[in-house]
Write a sequence for this structure.
């Protein structure tokens, strides 16, 4: 067959028109599938398989067009048979490539490790998902969550492993999503899931280690134990995970117990787990009840170091949220954290509390940085320590290190609004406002009703000159949090920056009328109005009252216009940030 004859036959059968029509339809199908993939959490294999099948379909359509273009009048030639054979070979090769990973993993067990498992093991990353409560008593949720949290902390304490933090892992509680979707969201290669059944003083713990990419089980075990042996079970599970991922432990952990026995009193342990469950809610009544439970645990076991550290956390939180007077609460928190470390020098959370006290009460920023650094050395998987140290490093004039810490916190806890918000603040304070806006948008998406995050977004929109958007966001914020002092300060600032001074002054009066209003927040509003006199008067009052916000004055872009003013220099010197 000559080339001209072949071209004529292609045109007669309208192969070009068939190909264009099919490709347009296939493109539309792929776009629809892509849009549906994220909300329905479909695995990558769905899109990969659809792409391969549509590619094969193109060849099939062209063949049908060829053979039916002249209503079947033509006879099959040798060239056409070769074309059909080629299509079959290509289809077989494509399907083989799509399924190769799955079949390789399906024939692999932890005992017969294959080379395909090596890259995953080399990553050394895991998320501990909330274990299911299958106890007859459904009120045991606090116990199940507490055991999961403890196991997560044991693994996070291993520098050889990267462990997704609690906030992000627990975001998937009660959700039945594909393993690869969770793995992508948390940036991990493996998942640990399981169930807990508690009856009286007996507990059954079932654990499964899952390959996040394939969804196949790498290791599975069930433990039936007495409640007092829970720490031993946690150690056994941790060691099995380390072995399955082929993680080589450093000298500090090789041959040692990974999950140490914190107390031999099972009832004291139960009280601590219930207390931690309440602390996570952050409410005034929750913290008061948690404090009582931690004291109950210490009455049963006065040497329970963990209970002292948790009690210290309650007291600094109560002071920080102004549920109690900050001064006495911070003093109690410091005393209890030191007591915890005297009993057990390896408790990272106690160092974090001491860092917070040094930062908030003492304005000892170098001392705070040391405490956070010690906490990180003891538990490299503690995202709060990185986030909190980022604030201190930024104030001390180390923006690159601050950004690095904030970024690492979001890597450990990608779904934490607090960690993402801190990253946004670090970009803001380092002058990268456009990036900061995008990051704060993400934080608001994670916690839509958090007024503090919405306030940050309003302020950033105003700082970047997007005044119409800032005012729209400010009006929405005021409806959500009408009396929130941070929101009022930022809304007044945004209105002032947009040239609407009358509205700004009206909102400012509402803030000034609040009892015990923060002088620093008043200074923010005054700065928006361009009133340097009132702004510096408020900042002086903030220093005298030891306002929590004052240490940010040297990096807060709200006061950028006053940065070279001698009064700012004097303020920084008073709080130990000069030079």
């Amino acid at each position: 067959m000559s080339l001209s004859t072949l071209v004529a036959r292609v045109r007669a059968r309208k192969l070009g028109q068939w190909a264009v029509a099919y490709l347009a339809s296939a493109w539309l199908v792929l776009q629809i599938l892509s849009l549906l993939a994220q909300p329905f959490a479909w695995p990558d294999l769905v899109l990969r398989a659809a792409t391969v099948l549509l590619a094969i379909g193109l060849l099939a359509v062209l063949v049908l067009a060829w053979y039916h273009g002249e209503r079947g009048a033509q006879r099959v030639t040798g060239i056409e048979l070769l074309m059909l054979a080629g299509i079959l070979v290509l289809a077989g090769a494509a399907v083989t490539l799509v399924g190769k990973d799955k079949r390789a993993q399906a024939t692999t067990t932890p005992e017969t490790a294959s080379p395909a498992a090596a890259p995953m093991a080399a990553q050394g990353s895991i998320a501990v998902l909330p274990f299911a409560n299958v106890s007859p008593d459904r009120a045991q949720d606090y116990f199940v969550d507490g055991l999961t949290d403890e196991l997560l902390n044991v693994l996070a304490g291993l520098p050889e492993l990267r462990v997704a933090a609690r906030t992000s892992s627990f975001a998937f509680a009660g959700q039945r999503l594909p393993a690869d979707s969770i793995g992508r969201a948390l940036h991990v290669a493996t998942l640990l899931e399981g169930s807990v059944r508690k009856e009286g003083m007996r507990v059954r713990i079932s654990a499964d280690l899952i390959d996040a990419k394939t969804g196949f089980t790498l290791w599975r075990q069930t433990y039936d134990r007495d409640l007092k042996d829970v720490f031993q079970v946690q150690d056994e599970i941790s060691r099995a995970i380390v072995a399955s991922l082929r993680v080589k432990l450093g000298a500090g952990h090789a041959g040692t117990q990974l999950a140490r026995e914190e107390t031999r009193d099972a009832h004291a342990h139960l009280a601590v787990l219930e207390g931690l469950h309440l602390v996570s809610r952050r409410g005034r009544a929750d913290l008061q009840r948690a404090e009582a439970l931690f004291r109950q645990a210490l009455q049963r076991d006065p040497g329970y170091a963990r209970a002292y550290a948790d009690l210290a956390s309650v007291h600094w939180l109560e002071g920080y949220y102004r549920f109690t007077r900050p001064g006495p609460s911070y003093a109690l928190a410091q005393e209890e954290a030191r007591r915890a470390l005297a009993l057990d020098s390896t408790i990272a959370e106690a160092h974090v509390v001491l860092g917070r006290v040094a930062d908030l009460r003492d304005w000892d920023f170098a001392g705070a940085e040391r405490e956070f650094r010690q906490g990180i050395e003891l538990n490299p998987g503690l995202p709060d320590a990185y986030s909190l140290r980022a604030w201190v490093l930024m104030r001390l004039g180390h923006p690159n290190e601050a950004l690095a810490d904030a970024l690492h916190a979001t890597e450990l806890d990608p779904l934490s609004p607090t960690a993402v918000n801190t990253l946004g603040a670090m970009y803001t304070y380092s002058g990268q406002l456009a990036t900061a806006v995008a990051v704060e948008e993400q934080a608001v998406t994670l916690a839509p009703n958090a007024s503090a995050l919405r306030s940050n977004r309003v302020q950033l929109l105003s700082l970047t000159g997007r005044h119409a958007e800032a005012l729209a966001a400010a009006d929405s914020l005021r409806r959500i949090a009408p009396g929130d002092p941070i929101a009022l300060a930022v809304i007044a600032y945004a209105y002032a920056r947009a040239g609407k001074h009358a509205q700004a002054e009206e909102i400012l009066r509402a803030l000034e009328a609040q009892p015990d209003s923060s002088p620093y927040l008043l200074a923010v509003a005054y700065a928006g109005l361009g009133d340097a006199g009132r702004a510096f008067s408020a900042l002086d009052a903030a220093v005298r009252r030891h306002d929590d916000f004052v240490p940010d004055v040297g990096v807060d872009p709200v006061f950028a216009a006053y940065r070279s003013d001698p009064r700012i220099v004097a303020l920084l010197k008073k709080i130990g940030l000069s030079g």
